[in-house]
Amino acid sequence: MAEACHGLPLTPREVRKAFTPEDLEDWLNGSLPQDTLVTFSQALVQRRMMDEGKRPPSYTEPAICQNCGPIWLWFSGEVQGCPWCWNRIAHRPIPRPQPVCCGDCAHFQRIDHPHMGHCVQGEPEGIAGLWDTDRRHCERYLPRPETT
């Protein structure tokens, strides 16, 4: 297992802790191939990076997730769900490939001014608040649900 972690910011103990009981059984009886262990270890490092709101090096293309909005992926296009959905669910940051519009965000709460509001996630804003057409790189942006 140490070989699978070589060069990665990960210990064999962390890899073993991430195993399911079935994975552990396969590893103990020697039926878990080394290349699978290496890939699993790399995936753990990538997930840790994403949990911290950092874009993995292989995520080079801007894409759109129906639930998360503009995201980075390893391909471009539109998707119904993405790896960043785990961050959205856990209220973790999501790096954005492009600026987003505050008024389109589920966290934008309007005040009695027709174009102004505040971010309920506490993102930095001016003393008067945010203009609904403000465009900025916001890791807390979530698309406002469409009303039907």
Automatic annotation (TrEMBL):
Record-given protein name: Uncharacterized protein
Organism the protein comes from: Nitrosococcus wardiae
